[in-house]
């Protein structure tokens, strides 16, 4: 199988490594099958799509919808480097899965709107498939309604033209969409387990993903949650697009 490529942007080593381990586990992948590039640490190297089965973009402390003037030099550089790669991905309908920050990048790239209208505190949320989601080759293997872990200050408010809404939620109307046949984006995190999101909230507890005085409640909600379906989505992505 050609490897998959994870494009990561978390500057904290513990968070970056936890994210990588999460995608390995959820996808049933070995390190040889999931290459990682940490874009916040170095320039994006030349990427030949034909060398990979698919591309994954994980979450980030970056917000794609922030005004350009407020973005750090690193974020501006990362997003400038990703634009031509996303051009290629969309033009070729190349297998792609963007989670959290990834949905923001794909929304902005495609001409949709990503902003702070629909934030969700860190923790579990209820996700429901649309009719198109139930008929989708990847999302159709999931339960019609399921719990997933989220934590975001921005979300897709207006879909990119031509995008297909696959999943929605009470607190965030766009939980997943597809562009073309093979380019996917989710607001929820397919790689997160209960233990992983507890690691994330410890690292990012002061980053505004929940009110500081709500930490005990956030931990209780996470501990009580049963989140299994998002990992099934990751495995379906690997099964469908893993190629020799």
TrEMBL record:
Keywords: Glutamine amidotransferase
GO annotations of cellular component type: cytosol
Presence of the UniProt keyword Nuclease in the record: no
Record-annotated Glutamine amidotransferase domain positions: 49-193
Species this chain originates from: Cryobacterium zhongshanensis
Domain of life per record: Bacteria
UniProt keyword Flavoprotein present: no
Listed name of the protein: Glutamine amidotransferase
TM ranges: none
InterPro entries tied to this protein: ChyE-like, Class_I_gatase-like, GATASE
Signal sequence, start to end: none
Lineage, opening ranks: Bacteria, Bacillati, Actinomycetota, Actinomycetes, Micrococcales
């Amino acid at each position: 199988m050609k490897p998959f490529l994870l494009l990561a942007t978390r500057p904290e080593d513990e968070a970056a490594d936890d994210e990588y381990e999460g995608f390995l586990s959820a996808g049933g992948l070995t390190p040889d099958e999931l290459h990682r590039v940490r874009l916040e640490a170095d320039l994006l190297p030349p990427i030949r799509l034909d060398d990979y089965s698919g591309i994954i973009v994980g979450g980030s402390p970056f917000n794609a919808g922030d005004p350009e003037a407020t973005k750090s030099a690193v974020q501006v550089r990362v997003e400038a480097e990703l634009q031509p790669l996303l051009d290629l991905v969309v033009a070729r309908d190349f297998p792609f899965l963007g989670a959290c920050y990834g949905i923001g990048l794909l929304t902005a790239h495609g001409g949709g709107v990503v902003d702070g209208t629909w934030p969700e505190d860190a923790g579990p949320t209820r996700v429901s498939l649309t009719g198109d989601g139930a008929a989708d080759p990847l999302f159709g293997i999931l339960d019609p309604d399921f719990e997933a872990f989220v934590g975001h200050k921005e979300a897709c408010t207006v879909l990119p033209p031509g995008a297909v809404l696959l999943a929605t939620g009470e607190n965030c109307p766009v939980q997943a969409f597809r562009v073309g046949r093979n380019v996917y984006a989710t607001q929820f995190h397919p790689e997160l387990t209960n233990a992983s999101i507890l690691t994330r909230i410890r690292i990012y507890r002061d980053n505004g993903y929940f009110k500081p005085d709500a930490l005990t409640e956030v931990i209780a909600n996470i501990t009580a949650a049963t989140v299994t379906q998002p990992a099934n989505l990751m495995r379906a992505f690997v099964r469908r697009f893993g190629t020799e």
